[in-house]
Write a structure and sequence with these properties.
The protein is 8% helix and 47% strand. The protein is built from one helix and 17 strands. By secondary structure, it is mostly beta strands.
């Protein structure tokens, strides 16, 4: 009994130290986030004692559950429990079991493409329909945390495509003064990382330059494919929709050159 009690006190103390060392969000994680839980087992039992982890529910265990650490992706809000059990391996089958209460918080992270504005081909004043017009459109991105007051760190992945045969993307750049870092992932895929926002709201914007015929409508599709808040490694959702948002650059009238008598 003394041996079992010693195991229990030592393992509990070590687990408490481990829990304190972890980021606080491991005890109050957001739905969708992944966190690692650690324990230091009885050093006298290394090589003989066996270990097992369990969670009460509301999550998915990633990988093994018989080591000294456990990775969990939390899937449902509410109170949960992480349990570690160490069993004596000398034949006594005595064990100690320690628990860490976890409160999983509902994920209110929300990411959407902001209001888009159609435009007109900017080649007015000339008469040259062949691949001559460069038009720049702005695409805003808006992120919210559902009222939380800390400053989040966002990452947004999106695709851009021109649906007009006689047009192409020339440049894609972060709007001057917008926060974050734009990354070209190839094949029309992009990401913006490091989007910070005060009081739970983040905003950024890109400028897309399109080259196309002056006398033909040009449409551009922008689609968010994934987004997450990096501080808590938590995926974001959308109150709207991530299906392609379409912007149109309208053609200008095909006016003839001026002639004289």
């Amino acid at each position: 009994m003394k041996k079992i009690l010693t195991y229990l006190i030592a393992t509990t103390a070590l687990l408490m130290i481990s829990a304190v060392a972890m980021a606080q969000d491991g005890e109050n994680p957001f739905v969708g986030s992944t966190h690692t839980y650690n324990v230091t087992p009885d050093p006298a039992g290394v090589g003989t004692n066996t270990y097992s982890w369990a969670i009460s529910g509301g999550g998915t265990i990633n990988g093994v559950s018989n080591g000294t650490s456990l990775s969990v992706t939390w899937t449902a809000a509410g109170p949960q429990t992480v349990t570690f059990t160490e069993t004596d391996g000398t034949g006594t089958t005595c064990f100690s079991s320690v628990q860490l209460p976890v409160t999983v918080i509902a994920n209110d992270f929300d990411v959407n493409i902001g209001t888009l504005a159609d435009g007109c081909n900017n080649n007015s004043g000339t008469v040259s329909p062949v691949d001559s017009a460069n038009s720049i459109i702005a695409i805003p991105f808006e992120m919210e945390t559902g009222g939380t007051t800390w400053s989040p760190n966002w990452e947004v992945f999106f695709d851009l495509s021109v649906t007009s045969v006689n047009a192409r993307l020339v440049t894609v750049a972060l709007t001057s003064g917008a926060n974050g870092t734009l990354n070209d992932l190839g094949g029309g895929a992009y990401s913006i990382t490091g989007i910070n926002g005060a009081s739970g709201v983040g905003e950024t914007s890109i400028d897309v330059e399109v080259k196309g015929y002056s006398f033909e409508d040009v449409t551009i599709d922008a689609e968010i494919t994934a987004a997450k808040e990096l501080q808590y490694d938590t995926p974001a959702g959308s109150t709207g929709s991530w299906v392609p948002s379409t912007i149109t650059i309208y053609k200008i009238p095909n006016t003839s050159p001026i002639t004289t008598d």
